[in-house]
Amino acid sequence: MAERLTKVKLKKLGIKNIKVSSRGINASGENIAENAKKVLKRLGASAVNRKSVKLRKVDVDTLYVTMTKAQKQALGKGKIIAFAELVGKDIIDPYGQDEMIYYETAQELEKGIQVLLEKILKYEVKI
Hints:
The chain is mainly alpha-helical.
């Protein structure tokens, strides 16, 4: 959801020079959850099927945003920030939960995405 919500925000802001993609530390090619699709559609984001993609390596020139501090630590060195640094708490994976939990997660993601983009634009962070 984070990738698709970020793309919606970038489009609304008219920002075209930031590439966004989603990778998972433990991804194994499963399709996006039905409840995620429902929430994304509700929020105006693409809800088409997509398989999860495993993060193979960390590129030192890429900015990574993780859902949790533990994921940030697992990635090691590089330009890595956790959502907790943006919104004050980890964002827990809603996988397997009901639609309301997915919606609440999407709202937390949107807050973090807003803070992240404000920081990037304010400080013109090179990404």
